[in-house]
Amino acid sequence: MNSAPASDLPFMDAFPAPSREIWRAAVDKVLKGADFEKKLVGRTADGIRIEPLYDRASPALRPLRGETGRWHVAARIDHPEPAEAQRLALAELEGGADSLTLAFAGAPTARGYGLVADDVAALDASLDGVMLDLIRLRLDPAPQGRVNALMLAALVERRTIAPDATAIDFGLDPVGQFVSTGGLPASWPEIGRRLAQTIRSLKARGFAGPFITADARPWHEAGASEAQELGAMMATAIAYLRALEAEGFSVEEARDAISFVLVADTDEFLTIAKFRAARLLWTRVQEACGLTPKAMVLHAETAWRSLTRRDPWVNLLRGTIATFAAGVGGADSVAVQPFTAALGLPDVFARRIARNTQLVLLEEANLWRVADPAAGAGGFEALTQALCEQAWTELQGLERQAGNGLPGIVAALAGGTLQADLAKQRDVRAKAIATRREPITGTSEFPNLREAPVSVLDVAPAVRAKPKFPLAKASEQDQGDLIDQLAKGAARDVALSAPEDGLRTQTLPSQRLAEPFEALRDRADAAAERPVVFLATLGPIADFAARAGFARNLFEAGGLSAPSGEGFAKDGVTDIAALAAAFTASGARLACLCGCDAAYAAEGAAAAQALTAVGATVWLAGRPGELEAELNKAGVRGFVFAGCDAVAVLTAALATALSTLP
User: Fold this and answer.
1) What DSSP designation does 569 have?
2) What is the reported pLDDT for 13?
3) Confidence label for 661 from pLDDT (cuts 50, 70 and 90)
4) H-helix or E-strand containing 521?
5) Are 306 and 318 in contact (CB under 8 A)?
6) Which of 23, 326, 396, 662 has the fewest beta carbons closer than 10 A?
7) C-beta separation of 151 from 495 below 8 A
8) How far is CA 293 from CA 210, 227, 283, 286, in A?
C-alpha cells in the first residue's frame, strides 16, 4: 500500500505509513485461523484472482476513445409497424438520444420483432422526420444484413443527403449470421468476395463506415466468460481483416472498416476491465499487423442474459451498473436494454427510463469528464492486464484452428469446438445460478409473489414475406446497381441472392440466467391455486425465524407460497399435536421443518413422525449433520440448505405440492 504524498495530505505525517505486512497481520487476527484464500480471494469465471487489497499502480499509457467528450446515447428501433417505429424514433431523439440502432426483422437482437421494410418507402416512413445527417445510425447485424445496408444507403440517396455527411455503422457480420442461423449461404471465400464488393460499393457512394461489426453479443448470450468473449470478438475481427485483405483491401483500409460491440454486464469491476482490455487487445492486433494503432470504434450494450422477467424493476439497477461500467470503461456509445425487454416489445415508458439512465450518468454524474478514471487503481489495472492475457490465449487457441481456407473463428465454429467450450462455461455458470452462489435478486433471491404486472406493447412478432420471384445469383449482382434500384422503389427482394452451397454449424443458444427459476414460477402460476409449503416451525420464534426466513425465500423462488406464523411453542416446547393439526388444515402436501439445531435434536424426529402420520412429505431446513440417520428414520425425505441445488429442490417441491392440486 502507498500513502498519499505528504504535500497533498499534510496531516498524514502524524500517522505511521501502513504496510502490507501490518494489514495482513490485522486481517489474520480477524480471521482467527480461517483460510485467507477461501475467505478473501475471489475468482472470475476465467480463474483470475480478485485480491482483497491492491497496491496503487503506475498507469501505463493506454489507448483511449477516438473522440473526447460524452459517449453517444443509443436507442434501438425495433417496432414492426413503420408508423409506430417512427413515433418511437422521434421520441428517443427528442428525449436525449443522439444515436439510433436499427434492428430489422430477423436480427437476433430484435427478439422476434424488428423493423419490417419491404422497400425503401417503408424504411423512409419508419424514419420520417429523422434527419439522417444529424445523428449517428447503426444497423444491428442480421441474416439479411447486406440487404439492410443497401436499403439504408438507398434511403440516403433517395433523400438526396450527401453520404459523407452521415455517420452510419452498417453492421455487416457474416460470422454473427453463421452462429445465429447455423449456416452461411456460400463458401467463406465467396462470403469475403461479397463483403468486399458491398463495402466498395458503399465507399464509392461516399460512405465512410464502419461497415463490418465484430459482435461479442452472441458469445456472451451463449455463456462466454469475459476472456472467451474478448478472444472470440478479436478472432472475428481478424477473420474480417484477412477476408478483406484477400480481396485487395490494404490492411489499413480493412482495419478502418471494422467496429466492435461489447456487452456491459452487472459485474462493475469486470466490465470496466473488459472494456479497457478490448482497446489494449485491438491495439496489439494492429501492431502485429504492422499498423500504427488507431482507436477502435466500440459500442456497448447492456447484457441480455442478465435481464429477468420476474420483478423486472430490478433490471433498472442492473442496467444502471452496466451503463456506469461501460461509460467508465471507455465505450464510444451505449445502448441500455429497457427493463421490460425480456417480457416483450418495450413501451415508451420503459424506453424512456433506459435512455434516462444514461442521461443521468452523463449530465448529473458527469462521468464523461474524466478519460479512463480507473487508470492507476491497482485492482482495475491488475484485472485489465489479466483479462488481456487470458483473452490473448483464447484468441491464439482459436487462430490455431484455422485451415482449409477458413479463418480460426469460422473453423472453430464449423468444427464445433467453440460451441463445446462455451457449453462447458455455460454449465459451470448454470450450476452457480442453481446453487445461488450467483444470486439473481428478485428471482432466485428475495422473490416477490405479489409483484404487479408491467406493460409491454401489444404487438405480434414480425413476419417476413417470402420472396415473390426467383432470386439472382450473387455473382450476377452489382451492389451499386442494386442501391439505385432500391432508391427508385424496387422491393428489397431484388437485393437478395440465391443461396449456394455454404458452411453449416451448430447454432449458439441465447439464454438468460434467470430462465430456470422463471420456468418454475411459470409452472406454479399456471396451477389452479398457488402451491403451498407448510413451514413446520419448532420452538419459539427467536429459534426458528432464521431458517423459516431462509426456507420461505427458497420456496417462493419457485413460486410456492410458504407462510409462517408465531409458531407452536408453549413454554419453550413445541406442541406437536397442534403442529400436525395446522398442517392438515393448510391443505399442503409438503412440510418443511424449521428450527435451531437444538430443536432438531430434541423435537425433530417426533415432529417428522407426527407430520408423516397425517400425510405430509417432510423436509428439513438446514444440514442434518449427525442427526441425518435418525431424521430419515422418522420420515424426513429431504434437506434444504445454503448451497443446495435450488432448481432441483424446487422442481421436486413443485412436483410434490402440485400432486394434490387439480
Assistant:
1) E
2) 72
3) very low
4) helix 515-525
5) yes
6) 662
7) yes
8) 16, 22, 5, 6
